[in-house]
Amino acid sequence: MGNELLEMQPAAFLQAAATASGGLTDFGDPSFLEPLGVLIEAVEREGQLTRAGLFGWQQRTLQLLTHRLRMQELFRQHPEILAAPVTRPLVIVSLQRTGSTKLQAVLACDERRQAPCLWEALFPVPFPGELPGDPRPRIEAAKAWEKMFYGAIPEALAAHAMFAEATEEETFAVEMSFRWTVASVSARIPSYIRWVENHDATPTYRDMKRILQAWQWQRGSGKPWVLKSPWHIGFLDALLEVFPDATIVQCHRDPYESVPSTCALMHLGRRVGRPTLSKIEHGAEVLAMNGREMTQHLRQRAALGAKDPTVDVFYQDIVHDVIGVARRIYATRGESLTPDAERRMRQWELDNGQHKHGKFHYTAEEYGITREGVAAAFADYYAHKEWFARLSQRR
Fold first, then answer.
1. Contact 195, 38 (CB under 8 A)
2. Which of 44, 45, 229, 235 is deepest in the core (most CB within 10 A)?
């Protein structure tokens, strides 16, 4: 294919993925087809990507489709994978920039649990010819991706450091559902985001479960997962439909502090394909999206009532007393923190201090974010005065 662009039609992408996979044609659950079409149309009509940006987006989309094909082939060859349970996952469901990355990494230090690594999320299925139990080809590919990524976006290292063999969120793999708002990271596509927000997300979480089952089979481990993604916000009902025994952890931070940081982080990704994107336009869209999804998340929590499995934790506690946060989460699961797990957690914190890779610089003003605008977008969230009373207790 070289650097030629594909026709912006689903059929062209499906055929190209089949060719890239060596002739595979079974994509599994067809629920991804409609949102794939909506996404392609939104990128073409709204994304305003440069030719290089569009080529990069197309290549990532092809990679995700190829993952679907190869994962479905893995299930065909090993149907026992889908019979394995995914038990009691611990899922951090929070807005971006709320301490969730640190919390996941710390909880993953407990060897009684498991969490995805970046190389698994980027390349969730063994490469053709890969020897069982030897994922080194994928680890090396992830290291190459890491080098390329930070070469293109050096500021991202300070914003959100990612390393091939380190704990990472499941997002990169779950993107293959094509029914998740994570697609907004690479392009401004408001019509697609609204489509996702207004359609059932259960197929996304069925895909996510199958991905976890595939990882369990490859690892030979059924230990409980520690997962996290900001893109779970707004889809709690679908998550719990598929994972009814999950423990949900919500990290709280004043949106006036977290949203500008989210805007800056997402702008790093979007500007690669659209260097002229207005920061003000971008900021308004991100604020509105985050506000809508938090409102939906809170409605879903309220509907659960006493059955809500959420543990509420706070940003300043994650920063200053993450071991205490871990103990409280464990207690809700009827578990305790072992001395070995605590030692590993404390060592991780010593090795990974805040701003280890530099400070991420941005201002609310450059993205048009005001206190009044945030208060309006997050009116339902701010109505939970007990959370903000807790957040106002500075350490």
1. yes
2. 235
